[in-house]
């Protein structure tokens, strides 16, 4: 089964936050790699920089997180995945039209769900309540 995690889940895997224990426990049970797209590359790396800016952790922690991320990409724990962006963006627009007024999802959260759907993953992994609702609403299994 393919798995797709949103960026905040991935960040919780690499720096300590309120969800780190749950993220690591989930990863410990996972026997398949997680998809890693260009959207993840931008968002995860930017989240690490923002964490430094906001004083949530030191630059050394962000550097260690980036190194661990690169290690996971090299080892295959994360698998670089190409996205058909026109397809994903059309689906995201449709999901926004159908669900944002009732769920309150943000555009990048919708885009992650749309990318996961376009990649035909079996499970979408997130801690975000609205994103979970959207993903489940379109038939994706949701974890953790």
Q: What would you note in describing this structure?
A:
By secondary structure, the protein is mostly helical. It has one domain (1-144): 5'-nuclease (Rossmann fold). Helices cover 63% and strands 10% of the residues. It has 7 helices and 5 strands. The protein has helices at residues 7-14, 20-29, 38-53, 59-75, 85-103, 107-118, 129-137, and strands spanning 3-5, 34-36, 78-80, 123-125, 141-143. The protein has a 3-stranded parallel sheet. A two-stranded parallel sheet has the order 2-3. α3 runs antiparallel to α4, α5 crosses α6 and α6 (107-118) packs parallel to α7 (129-137). The radius of gyration is 15 Å and the shape is globular. The two termini are 14 Å apart. The model has no long low-confidence stretch (mean pLDDT 94).
- Give the end-to-end Cα distance, rounded to a whole number of Å: 14 Å
- Quaternary class: single chain
- Domain count, please report it: 1
Largest sheet: 3 strands, parallel
Just give the CATH class. Answer: Alpha Beta
Strand order of the largest sheet: 1-4-5
Strand content: 5-15%
Order of helix and strand elements from N to C terminus: EHHEHHEHHEHE
The CATH architecture comes to 3-Layer(aba) Sandwich
**How many helices?**
7
Helix-residue proportion: 55-70%
List strands and helices in order, with pairings:
Layout: E1 3-5, H1 7-14, H2 20-29, E2 34-36, H3 38-53, H4 59-75, E3 78-80, H5 85-103, H6 107-118, E4 123-125, H7 129-137, E5 141-143
Parallel strand pairs: 1-4, 2-3, 4-5
Helix pairs in contact: 1-2, 1-3, 3-4, 5-6, 6-7
Tags for this entry?
144 residues; mainly alpha; Rossmann fold; three-stranded parallel β-sheet; two-stranded parallel sheet; 7 helices; 63% helix; 10% strand; globular
